[in-house]
């Protein structure tokens, strides 16, 4: 199945006036796509998903499944599987009854229901739990049962709204893999909602970055990381975040742009210097892995105020006149907190944003 969303808008009325939760968005999802909505809390992800599910009525715009307009089609006729943050297995039902519940709603005879539940349980490797009650299961087993329930009725698409946010870090990784395994196996579109960019980046074929009821950019994880179209996406995608320096264009010609940052000239290589003019207010964006530290050489200066480990990476925070800069360090570095140090940026790997619109104007050839 394909899902096409066009000019979707959803307003809610509240005592304090109208809230525009979704402000005219467009996207389409192909058969077999793992498509993620990512963005901060309150930006309209859940409302969009609920419109697709048929749990909310759009104010305007259209939703099509395989070209067919879903307007007026109730949720239970859309043949979707849904999984939300709270697992909500029915506590008084055995696991096999829980898993087969979507079939019961569709009046499938008991024998057939239980056979399908066994198959789904086999896929999730929880067959031995079928006769137990949810209260007898661990958190991870409950999540597996909930996943088994989503696949039991062979849905046309999967809608998942922050299904992992209540789990501890280890279990998150385990269930993430299970969700991907199910997705690869059934080859149906999955829409996955999360506020966690890292989760989005590791799981998705394509990602829509939501902000304030709109979509800032849609792309593959690589496209969003390497070619963010505006500062919001540049800042939101990637951990640690991109560094930003505000400055003014001093010179732009050929493939060179010189930006004055805090009174110092920073010379950048860009693919299109005609995109900026002398005097333009711009923001230079550079990822922490594209900044170098050195005790002697570098355009900018600052003091190391923090050295920390994030996953496999060592990260230094440098404070200086240009603001706070985060820099990825080699694992065997000998820097220490409190050192005054020089910084140089990889001038071929920068992004240049218009300071007014925050849209990207040009970027270096190596990003
Ligand atoms: P997200 O899932 O990205 O956190 P939501 O879609 O839940 O965001 O919410 C988007 C906006 O719509 C928020 O401002 C939220 O308060 C508002 N909203 C969501 N549901 C309702 C509702 N039923 N009534 C009024 N406002 C709502
Ligand atoms: Mg939400």
Could you characterize what this model shows?
23% of the residues lie in helices and 38% in strands. The strands form 4 sheets. A 6-stranded mixed β-sheet has the order 6-7-8-3-9-10, sandwiched between helices. Strands 13-12-11-14-20-21 form a 6-stranded antiparallel β-sheet. A 5-stranded antiparallel β-sheet has the order 15-19-16-17-18, with no helix packed on it. It is built from 9 helices and 21 strands. The mean pLDDT is 94. It folds into 2 domains: 3-236, Rossmann fold; 243-363, Nucleic acid-binding proteins (OB fold (Dihydrolipoamide Acetyltransferase, E2P)), CATH 2.40.50.140. A hairpin with a 2-residue loop joins strand 11 and strand 12. It has 367 residues and is α+β, with helices and mostly antiparallel strands. The chain binds adenosine-5'-diphosphate (ADP) and magnesium ion (MG).
Class of the largest domain, according to the CATH hierarchy?
Answer: Alpha Beta
The kinds of small molecule bound in this structure are: adenosine-5'-diphosphate, magnesium ion
Major beta sheet, strand line-up = 6-7-8-3-9-10
Number of helices: 9
The share of residues in helices is 10-25%
Structural class: alpha+beta
- The CATH topology of the largest domain corresponds to Rossmann fold
Mean pLDDT: 94
Identify the overall geometry.
elongated
- Corresponding CATH architecture of the largest domain: 3-Layer(aba) Sandwich
Integer-rounded radius of gyration: 25 Å
> What is the domain tally?
2
Name the CATH homologous superfamily of the largest domain: P-loop containing nucleotide triphosphate hydrolases
Largest pleated sheet: 6 strands, mixed
